[in-house]
Amino acid sequence: MNAIQTITLCGGGSLGHVCAGYLASRGEVNVNIFTTKPEKWSRELLIDTPDGTTLTGRLGLVSSNPQAVIPQSQVVLLCLPGFAIHDELEKIAPMLTPGTYVGSVFCSTGFFFEALDLLPDNVALWGFQRVPFISRTTEYGHRATLKGYKNSHRIAIERSGEEDVFAEQISRLFGAPVEILENYYEASYSNSNPILHPARIYSLLENWKEGDTFDHNILFYEEWTDRASELLIAMDRELFEVLDRLPVTPGYLTPILEYYESVDASSLTRKIRSIGGFKGIGSPMVETAVGWVPDFKSRYFVEDFPYGLRFIKEEADRQGVSTPVINEIYAWGMAMLKQYNS
């Protein structure tokens, strides 16, 4: 493939801001934005970094019209939550030219499953196993904070034929070594958010009923419980039983206990409570006149159950693997979504 000249980022969340500003600041590629709110973007995007410096990225086109930005792009990168991926792919599909690489910043919310179904075979697919940056939006369309870099990136590439060449270019543009995963399963199935968030939410709300309130917003990680750890360990074990049936590289994913340097539920609880980057993060709750109640419109619900845990459960069903804990938590989460978000 030829050198990447233009990248279009789809979406205006925190990762969209930071990826766009970071890539544009390097001056090696033209960076476009496909967004529903083009009027809120400036042509210069400021990115504050952990070392106290500020990157300035000058953007190319910012548009809500896919025809204006997609056909000229060699790479399209979706920076979107799982529930927005299907519709976005449908919008851009007619504008894609053969050989374009369409990817996602995070693949455990269903990107590859949707893209393999919706995009033509002459479009290459790629995606990160984990997000390339830790990011926060400071001022929409103008400024964002890059809170953390990754030392390396792991990406899956499908329908390419030039995987090594593409990976080398992504490594250069994102400023870190890139490892190519064996296949899209290794980017799509993760024991991070898709099981970590549901395990914690279920442990917190499994006995909740309408009318119940909390006296404060429970801290998601700092008030983590042994019950949450037990559920997470069980879900992790079931996930690995599913992975044993798939053509994935042994060891591509680290078991939860090993990842968190723990040996059992109580040590896992202590570890999660102690992690500095997790400090101050609340649970999906909103305050009312009588106390705190669950926020069923939070992405912890609308993404992590139907666009995270769902894909693991469906793969388990296809492979004939028994996953009783995953099934119980998934059924509960989907029932809550149906009851309170319908």
Provide tags for this entry.
alpha/beta, 4-stranded mixed beta sheet, 39% helix, 19% strand
Strand elements, count: 14
Percentage of β-strand residues:
15-25%
Largest sheet report: 8 strands, mixed
Mean pLDDT: 96
> Can you count the helices?
13
Unreliable stretches covering 5 or more consecutive residues: none
Distance between the amino and carboxyl termini = 47 Å
What order do the helices and strands follow? EHEEEEHEHEHEEEEHEHHHHHEEHHH
Oligomer category: single chain
Q: For the CA atoms, what is the radius of gyration?
A: 20 Å
Question: What is the 3D shape?
Answer: globular
Output the strand order for the largest sheet: 5-2-1-6-7-8-11-12
Derived from helix and strand composition plus strand pairing, the structural class reads: alpha/beta
Helical residues, percent = 25-40%
Topology:
Blueprint: E1 6-10, H1 14-26, E2 30-34, E3 44-48, E4 54-58, E5 62-63, H2 66-69, E6 75-78, H3 82-92, E7 101-104, H4 111-118, E8 124-128, E9 133-139, E10 143-149, E11 153-158, H5 163-174, E12 178-180, H6 185-188, H7 193-205, H8 226-243, H9 256-259, H10 265-274, E13 285-288, E14 291-294, H11 299-302, H12 305-319, H13 324-341
Parallel strand pairs: 1-2, 1-6, 2-5, 3-10, 6-7, 7-8, 11-12
Antiparallel strand pairs: 3-4, 8-11, 9-10, 13-14
